[in-house]
Design goal:
Number of helices: 17
Order of helices and strands: HEHHEHHEHEHEHEHEHHEHEHEEHHHH
Keywords: Iron, Metal-binding
InterPro entries: Hyd_form_HypD, HypD_1, HypD_2_sf
CATH class of the largest domain: Alpha Beta
CATH superfamily of the largest domain: HypD, alpha/beta domain 2
Radius of gyration: 21 Å
Number of strands: 11
Largest sheet: 5 strands, parallel
Protein name: Hydrogenase maturation protein HypD
Shape: globular
Family: Belongs to the HypD family.
Pfam families: HypD (PF01924)
Bound molecules: iron/sulfur cluster
């Protein structure tokens, strides 16, 4: 029976009571940054026995964007003809030089705007015809379709001063990369319900078929998460290694075909770099050649920084689930929400920000 009664406290009590009796060590990775925040906010770690370990994975889009690409965006932002439109989480992430960020660029007088939707960026382009508006496209399959919709709007409405710097990434390639690492030690995955809304149950089926790792597509309420953890433990105990969809109120077997179609109309997979992980084959999304005029990298002939992996902080290790945020020596001393040093503290979905804010 799958769980769809995520707000029944009495049932949750029964499940929690079963979980507190569980005494074997199990390591469960929540792939999604929104899950990380829900877990921290609801205090789930505090009520589970210590042997049930919840580990954050590479599911915060801002966190997995490498410093090299932040530097590329900062370079572009110095062009006086360019107006950068970005989601708010990106503006405090620092590049490699002198702690510079888009926020600092804005203070220096460069044109940086925070938007809530890529369509807002298209509107800005329609109003500011003397500027080249570059939207920073970031996120997994959840947000890539909305970026594609903005490109389609720009095409249909003849907006030629709009382009996208695509940092979009896909979930499956990074999971494959993590699983194939020598020291992979995760016993089960909480799969991101928001990504699954787009790619469907089928998008995570490879975890069951190829890797036999228990996995549950999970919603974002505390009840969803607790029940999913319970199911992962039951699967482990019964050696029944499969994929379940707990989030049936939102996720269909085949996902959202319309959203995938528009994403695939404008984007195609490309090799991409991830903070702390490096190059992953076909893990990013770039504009197709026929839409080159909407690709900021091509439009401004940007010479992208090569991957150096010389980050000074431990965000890469947090993203891979190798360390807990508190194991970073900068956590809560040098690196705080007020004065973040790495993207995992900057982003509202970052594991360090969640741990700092909610002291889970
Ligand atoms: Fe990076 Fe700060 Fe987290 Fe350390 S505490 S890993 S510096 S974000």
């Amino acid at each position: 029976m799958l769980w769809n009664e995520f707000k029944k406290p009495k049932d949750i009590e029964k499940i929690l009571s079963a979980l507190t009796k569980y005494d074997k060590e199990i390591r469960i990775m929540e792939i999604c940054g929104t899950h990380t925040v829900s877990i921290a906010k609801s205090g789930i770690k505090g009520i589970l026995p210590k042997n049930i370990k919840l580990i954050s994975g590479p599911g915060c889009p801002v966190c997995v964007t490498p410093t090299e690409r932040i530097d590329d965006i900062l370079f572009l932002s110095k062009n006086k003809d360019v107006l950068i439109a970005t989601y708010g989480d990106m503006i405090r992430v620092t590049g490699s030089i002198d702690g510079t960020s888009l926020e600092k660029r804005k203070a220096e007088g460069f044109d940086i705007r925070v938007v809530y939707s890529p369509l807002d960026a298209v509107k800005i382009a329609q109003c500011c015809k003397d500027k080249e508006v570059v939207f920073i496209g970031i996120g997994f399959e959840t947000t890539a379709p909305s970026t594609a919709i903005a490109i389609e709007r720009a095409i249909n409405e003849g907006v030629n001063n709009f382009s996208v710097f695509s940092l979009h990434k896909m979930v499956e390639p990074v999971l494959r990369k993590l699983i194939n690492m020598n020291d992979f030690n995760i016993d089960g995955f909480l799969c991101p319900g928001n990504v699954a809304v787009i790619i469907g149950e089928e998008g995570f089926r490879f975890l069951e078929i190829e890797f036999k790792i228990p996995s549950v597509i999970c919603g974002f309420e505390a009840g969803d998460i607790i029940y999913s953890i319970y199911r992962l433990i039951q699967m482990r105990e019964n050696k029944d290694f499969k994929l379940e969809n707990e989030y049936i109120r939102a996720v269909k077997q085949k996902g959202n075909e319309i959203a995938r179609n528009i994403m695939n109309k404008y984007f195609e997979p490309c090799d991409d770099i991830w903070r702390g992980i490096g190059w992953i084959e076909n893990s990013g999304l770039k504009l197709k050649d026929e839409y080159i005029q909407y690709d900021a990298v091509k439009k401004f002939n940007l010479d992208l920084n090569p991957y150096k992996n010389n980050d000074f902080c431990s965000c890469g290790e947090v993203i891979k689930g190798k360390i807990d945020p508190r194991e970073c020596k900068l956590f809560s001393t040098v690196c705080t929400i007020e004065n973040p040093k790495g993207p995992c503290m900057v982003s509202s979905e970052g594991a360090c920000a969640a741990a700092y804010k909610y002291s889970d």
